[in-house]
Amino acid sequence: MSMEKIIRRDFPVTGMHCASCAARVEKAIKNNTGVKNAAVNLSAATVLIEYNPADSGDTDFKKSLQDIGFDLIVAEKPDKIADETAEKEFSELKRNTVMAALLTIPVVITGMFLMHLPYRNWIMLLFSTPVVFWFGRGFFTSAIRQLKHRQVTMDTLVALSTGIAYLFSLLVTVAPYIFKRLSLNEDAYFEAASVIIVFILLGRLLERRAKSNTSTALRKLMSLRPDNVTIIDADGTDKSVSIEEVTVLQLLRVKPGERIPVDGEVTDGSSYIDESSVTGEPLVVEKGPGSKVIAGTINQRGSFIMVAEKVGDETLLARIIKMVKEAQGSKPPVQRLVDKVASVFVPVVISVAVTAFTVWMLFGGENAFHQALIALVSVLIIACPCALGLATPTAIMVGIGKGAENGILIKDADSLELIHKTDTIVLDKTGTITEGKPVVTDSLWLPSGSASDRAIFLAMEQQSEHPLAEAVTKKLKEENRESAEINDFESISGQGVTATYHGEKYFAGNELLMRDNKIAVDNETYVNIHTLQEQAKTVMLFAGRGKVLGIMAVADTIKPSSAAAIERLRGEGIEIHLLSGDNEHTTHTIATMTGISNFRSSLLPGDKADYIKELQRKGKKVLMIGDGINDSQAMAQADVSIAMGKGADIAMDVAGMTIVSSTLDAVPSAIALSRQTIKTIRQNLFWAFFYNVIAIPVAAGILFPFTGFMLNPMIAGAAMAMSSVSVVSNSLRLKYKKL
Length: 739
Description:
This protein is an alpha+beta fold. Helices cover 51% and strands 18% of the residues. The strands form five sheets. Strands 14-26-25-24-15-22-23 form a seven-stranded mixed sheet, with helices on both faces. The protein has a six-stranded antiparallel sheet with strand order 6-5-7-13-8-11, with no helix packed on it.
């Protein structure tokens, strides 16, 4: 092997639709020389490959996938081509499903109700042929490819059962005299073959739609980075260039309302930056010369110049995007259990059918062929995967509908399957436990204050650009205060604001502002300030005429339902952890008030993801609940995640579930819903096989030596239909269970 130089690269893959597809893609890629590892992200339809480019490359990977019926996109803009391909495949699948359903309706009506219609079988043949061999051709081509590689999945089962049902029916239609001469059953099963195709196509359509939504999270993360940026040339002139052209140490100008393009440091000017995309905290942050700024955050007010320090894939935003991709790819698909069962079920059924045919041919006497043919056809028809195909989708559909009725929006079936296994919940603080926005919690006016003082305070806060000013202004307006006409307004960085009213100077800000202007703070006021600060509240003082006139405390308050919901979760034996980008004092206070003993503060997005990784290394099944873009990396890393409905769109896209009310009291209900749905799926799988397990030996003729009873294909078809009815009925029961 050549000298080791391992690189990691993502490639879009087309043609994958189930767990076995992902497994085959990984195996094919790993068979290439120099490949260290390959991990498929089924939801994003990509494969992350670690390889030595000296030994193999994208053309090798592409060929190895094309050989097994998939394709690797290696174009200049692979993501765009992958999106276009996926959209085209989805449209084709939707068209095939609709057309197959329309053609199946007359087949079912003719087969079930018009028993004496002239040319009945020929009519069903006419309508069912395009359903099976055109709209359902994908199952047959896939089954053939799998057979070449000695593998079987659901496609094999679908192709086998529909093909046998169709061919048997075709023989009955074109050569009925053979069956009459041999005294064989002349019933056709065109409707069975057509209905199976339609149901499986519908399941694929719903699955594809769910998967397409998961990739929007990555697209929205990428959209946080602007396409163009203003650089400052050596001669001091501004120039607009593509973000890809930005280099380290280049000077950039960022205007109000623009997103910061790269990580760097402010060199000139000042502004307030909305960093919620990184920290998750609702308060904007004041930035000046020497302050660090991060790509993807929003410049709210002022204009400033910055120097680029990290560009391209080195920015924090780029690293978050990369980690979200990798973490999403580690999630198990919901169909894995069904595919495992199918991989065993298909060869067993084939073996039983062939064995039954052989035994009857050897020991059946003068009616050997008659009995052998009936046994072969009956066993294969009774192995129809209709109920197996419906077992998971029907339960998932009912579960998702029930969740929506209770304010729990479920984006993908994986989360609904996994959340009930949770033994550890990691909570973000801001917007999850708390309301996510600052409000005035305490308002104390000293006896020395007057109505006109409050009007002055309102006027000062209306002109202030401080992040907390909006909350104070709102509170004062609610008290029906009218603002006064003030003069000489001045903002003092890090302290507060000052203004003059009728020749008297007034102050609004922190204790440092009071000290620097020799404003007296008596003992009682000091005690009040200290008490409020101990409750993790920001205290704002208003003073004039040499003394403090009023106090207002601002905080991000805890949601009323948070503490009770956390207690209920702990009562179910679930371990609770609190992670926050906020300071230690505030985080500790919130944790204490909600009864959480495990907490960490001052964390960046990567720190949260690392914390979850550590829990997972200890064997924990982690549920992450958050609401911000900054939580998306940790949410993707967790085994399953829930987003608050009033949070960032990207958090909701990454998460498998969204709580519309944004309150934690819906989380225990979501866990209960998951538990009930998985129980229903297991019951469905039992019913899907119950009739088959009982009837397959009967179809093979095991009862004939004792009772003379031989199961014919019609009864086999009825057993198949019965199992499907049982599965659907059991799924509908889920609607009436309490959460």
